[in-house]
Automatic annotation (TrEMBL):
SUPFAM superfamilies: FAD-linked oxidoreductase. This is Proline dehydrogenase. Its cofactor is FAD. Converts proline to delta-1-pyrroline-5-carboxylate. It catalyses: L-proline + a quinone = (S)-1-pyrroline-5-carboxylate + a quinol + H(+). GO terms for cellular component: mitochondrion. The lineage of its organism: Eukaryota, Viridiplantae, Streptophyta, Embryophyta, Tracheophyta. The keyword DNA damage does not apply.
């Protein structure tokens, strides 16, 4: 079973500094091909040019966007499904319960024997069924068809996490390729994206090494990386480089061979998505390995994104202080060489880990100091992308569970003339989360997808544990959904009694 690990050298630093109190507040390439723009050669303007653009409007809203009618919002959801979702969201909103559950799931008591089977069965019928599409392709297909019937789409995610050797990577890429086949067997356009995790098709240690080398080249542009392909700017001036404390050794012949194998896996997956005409969305990870992930993403985008619509999408985590700056640099560089780019904008899911790593190395967290700053960054990046795609090539996926961000984005799309059902714009939420926002946006005419991991319970368990740990605040903040669910369940109960 794949598990997510902190690199040993980072873990060592964290342990050495374990006596230090970790802040809990949510409270930053020089490509060698001359045609690709380096991050050091592009001016880094503010997100809005005051002479030509206006900040996001908070007053213009499509009148049909309504979150105040739970009967209409949940009209397509069965009472049994609504009861389960309400119970699971209430349970995951209780911090101590989440802590105890995570400790129990990670303990040796549940690793073997009858108790393990009982626990897995319990998880399967509650948390797993709420947040996952199913154990295999057939289950995932049924979940997608249900979504399609109620006006939503699915982002199919083969639910494997990190790989640590080529054997694991080869196994995982078969799962991602099969996901494309599954997508083709489902109703047309019911699958909006196939998701890939680069951490599952390239060994984690190699991703860490590549990230170190890319960071060092950002510090010293004369540092040559002979294996490096054409790419886009990966870093901005404000990007964190503290992970790489000293000049790294070049890749060994064995590492270069492993890199070539990883390139071939991603190339095969990209080519299959091009043939199937299904976009491939690359998930983001923590900053220890994100530079390498961006490198793979952007080099693949240059190769496969043609015309007006991209096939390869990257992910920008807007809880990072350098998010806006990197989005601007990469967008401008791609525009200059005629490569249409697609981005998924998210807030981010590695806050605890990022804070621990930065503190262990004696640096400020790369995460915005306040939640309001994160909201502002997400909304600013959203506004920038909506204006950009309204006037040119490119696509954006707005992955948000925040009602206000959803309203602002819908208003901005209306303002810039994108309309509603527009292939350039997709809203997205996790499967089993923010149902009111998903249905509200869909009823208003926007395209909406649910992020749907699938696979055996034991394989997907790292995903579920990570969601519980990293999205603790998100789960606790699901009060809006829980309140609307209670109202609708109460209405249905009264209707059945009276």
């Amino acid at each position: 079973m794949a598990t997510r690990v902190i690199p040993p050298r980072i873990l060592k630093n964290i342990r050495q500094n374990s006596a230090t109190t970790t802040a809990t507040a949510i409270k930053s390439l020089n490509p060698i091909h001359p045609s690709i723009i380096s991050s050091t050669t592009i001016a880094q303007p503010s997100l809005y040019d005051e002479a030509n653009q206006k900040p996001p409007s908070t007053t213009v809203q499509p009148p049909s966007l309504n979150f105040n009618d739970p009967e209409k919002l949940f009209s397509s959801v069965s009472t049994s499904k609504l009861l389960r979702s309400s119970a699971v969201l209430h349970a995951t909103a209780i911090g101590p319960m989440v802590d105890i559950g995570m400790w129990f799931m990670k303990s040796k008591i549940v690793q073997t024997g009858v108790l393990k089977n009982l626990v897995m069965s319990s998880v399967k019928n509650t948390f797993y069924d709420n947040f996952c599409a199913g154990e295999d392709a057939a289950d995932a297909g049924r979940s997608i068809r249900w979504l399609n019937d109620v006006g939503l789409r699915g982002m199919l995610v083969y639910g494997v996490e990190d790989a640590h050797d080529n054997e694991g990577c080869d196994h995982n890429v078969k799962g991602f390729l099969h996901t494309v086949d599954v997508s083709l067997s489902l109703p047309h356009k019911s699958v909006s994206f196939v998701i890939v995790k680069i951490t599952a098709i390239c060994p984690m240690k190699l991703l860490e090494r590549i990230s170190d080398l890319l960071r060092w080249q950002q510090k010293d542009p004369s540092f040559i990386l002979p294996w490096k392909e054409d790419t886009l700017p990966i870093f901005a001036e404000s990007s964190p480089l503290y992970h790489t404390q000293k000049k790294p050794d070049p890749l060994t012949p064995e590492e270069e061979n492993d890199l070539e194998l990883a390139n071939k896996r991603l190339l095969e997956l990209c080519q299959k998505c091009v043939q199937a005409n299904i976009p491939l969305l690359v998930d983001a990870e923590h900053t220890t390995v994100q530079p390498a992930i961006d490198y793979f993403t952007y080099s693949s985008a240059i190769m496969h994104n043609k015309g007006d619509n991209p096939i390869v999408f990257g992910t920008i985590q807007t809880y990072l202080k350098d998010a806006k700056e990197r989005l601007l640099l990469t967008s401008k560089a791609a525009e200059k060489i005629g490569v249409p780019m697609g981005y998924k904008l998210v807030r981010g899911a590695y806050m605890s880990l990022e804070n621990k790593i930065a503190e262990s190395l004696g640096f400020a967290s790369p995460i915005h100091n306040t939640i309001d700053a994160t909201h502002k960054c997400f909304n600013d990046c959203t506004s920038f992308m909506l204006e950009k795609i309204a006037n040119g090539p490119g696509n954006v996926v707005l992955a948000t569970h925040n009602i206000e961000s959803g309203k602002l984005a819908a208003a901005k799309a209306h303002e810039v003339g994108l309309g509603k059902v527009n292939h350039k714009l997709e809203f997205a939420q996790l499967y089993g989360m923010s149902e009111a926002l998903s249905f509200g946006l869909s009823h208003a005419g926007f395209q909406v997808s649910k992020y749907m991991p699938f696979g055996p319970v034991e394989m997907v368990m790292p995903y579920l544990l990570r969601r519980a740990e990293e999205n603790r605040g998100l789960l606790a903040a699901s009060g809006f959904d829980r309140q609307l669910m209670r109202k609708e369940l109460g209405r249905r109960f009264k209707a059945s009694v009276f």
